[in-house]
């Protein structure tokens, strides 16, 4: 008897089916990894922008003395310093930009601003420490894929209310 070399139709169909399933699973894995890479890249960029913006504001607040704070429009506040310089902090919701002084940056795709909060507090009972008051600036920046996470600007500036002449208005 002569043995035949080759594959039967059933063996061919089975091998093609298994190969197709493996290829589809690998393709889905590849798409998942691409999505993970993209979203983690956005998250990293949001953290970098958050750190840069906060550093810009904090650097000026710690090296200069604020003499006056005023409202300069919708989502805008102006800081005047003892040395005569002025810096404005503003957000442009339509163009998704943030600016402070000469620094300006654009938000990451699909991210958006929450409601900004600027609050002034004074601790009257604090008689031993000259730094008896502080200003809180909170500008939330949100990203839909990371619900509950805030990538925004959070700055607290502590000051001596007797030496600095802050006049504040709501942001």
Structural commentary:
- The chain has one helix at 9-63, and strands at 66-71, 76-81, 86-92, 97-100, 103-106, 112-113, 117-122, 133-139, 141-142, 153-159.
- It has 171 residues and is α+β, with helices and mostly antiparallel strands.
- A hairpin with a 4-residue loop joins strand 1 and strand 2.
- A five-stranded antiparallel sheet has the order 1-2-3-4-5, covered by helices on one side.
- The protein has one domain (9-159).
N→C terminal distance? 95 Å
User: Biggest sheet, in brief?
Assistant: 5 strands, antiparallel
Strand-pairing-aware structural class? alpha+beta
For the record, the count of structural domains works out to 1
Instruction: Indicate the low-confidence ranges by residue numbers.
Output: 167-171
Q: Report the count of strand segments.
A: 10
Oligomer: single chain
Return the average pLDDT rounded to an integer: 82
Query: Number of helical segments?
Result: 1
Q: Using the CA coordinates, give the radius of gyration.
A: 28 Å
> How large a portion of the residues is in β-strands, by DSSP E?
25-35%
Salient structural properties:
alpha+beta, 1 helix, 30% strand, 10 strands
């Amino acid at each position: 008897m002569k043995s035949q070399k080759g594959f039967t139709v059933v063996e061919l169909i089975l091998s093609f089916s298994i190969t197709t399933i493996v290829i589809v699973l690998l393709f889905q894995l590849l798409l998942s990894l691409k999505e993970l890479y993209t979203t983690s890249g956005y998250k990293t960029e949001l953290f970098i922008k958050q750190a840069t913006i906060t550093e810009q504001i904090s650097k000026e607040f710690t090296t200069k003395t604020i003499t006056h704070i005023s409202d300069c429009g919708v989502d805008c506040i102006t800081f005047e310093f003892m040395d005569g310089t002025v810096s404005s902090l503003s957000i442009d919701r339509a163009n998704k930009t943030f600016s402070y002084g000469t620094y300006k940056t654009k938000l990451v795709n699909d991210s958006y601003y929450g409601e900004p909060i600027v609050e002034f507090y004074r601790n009257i009972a604090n008689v031993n420490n000259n730094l008896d008051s502080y200003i809180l600036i909170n500008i939330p920046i949100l990203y839909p894929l990371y619900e509950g996470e805030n990538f925004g600007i959070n700055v607290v500036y502590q000051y001596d209310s007797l030496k600095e002449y802050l006049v504040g208005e709501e942001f």
